[in-house]
Specification:
Length: 179
């Protein structure tokens, strides 16, 4: 007897990694909730269209919450992976290996869940793919990726962050209202 399995596949959703702090999970370095969490409307849209996989690369890398504020010095996440840049706290403690470990673990989560995309938190040394702080702890921003978004991008996973997430909604008959 011929079985039509394609009907079932029609309802399978793509998995997407999302920075956990965007869901109001208090995993930020200071233990607070992010001020730009995803609105109810956007969360509802994402739930309808994707399997959501919250990740926090810095916690995955073994760092506690709260933890020291970190910035990338000498480049961005791609530079860190090329060993040309480093992730440090203002007092000089080096967290580079922790953030690389977190990126590797998040990549493994992507493989397990078959996620092909990540929606990250802007300005984060781990999760941004628009702007990051430039390393002087003076509040100055530069264009650049975080360590996890650079790692995922190097492995063919599409990365977006809250600065450029509108492309997530193209073709979904829904327009992002902003956040
Ligand atoms: S590492 Fe990413 S998910 Fe974790 S608190 Fe920072 S921005 Fe949010």
């Amino acid at each position: 007897m011929h079985r039509n399995y394609s009907r079932g596949y029609k309802f399978m959703k793509e998995a997407i990694l999302v920075s956990a702090c965007l869901f109001s999970i208090p995993c930020r370095y200071d233990g607070n909730r992010a001020s730009n969490c995803l609105s109810e409307e956007i969360q509802s849209f994402l739930k309808q269209n994707f399997v959501l996989v919250p990740v926090c690369p810095e916690q995955s890398g073994g760092l506690s919450t709260p933890r020291k504020c970190m910035e990338i010095q000498g480049g961005d996440g791609f530079g860190v992976l090329e060993k040309k840049a480093f992730v440090k706290s203002q007092d000089g403690e080096n967290f580079t290996s922790r953030l690389i470990l977190g990126a590797e673990i998040v990549y493994n989560i992507a493989l397990i869940t078959k996620a092909t995309m990540m929606l990250g938190q802007r300005k984060s040394p781990s999760c941004s793919c628009s702007q990051i702080y430039e390393g002087s702890f003076q509040g100055k921003l530069i264009q650049g990726y975080g360590v996890t978004t650079a790692f995922l991008s190097n492995h063919g996973i599409k990365v977006l962050d809250t600065e450029n997430m509108d492309t997530l909604f193209y073709g979904k008959e829904w327009q992002c209202p902003g956040n």
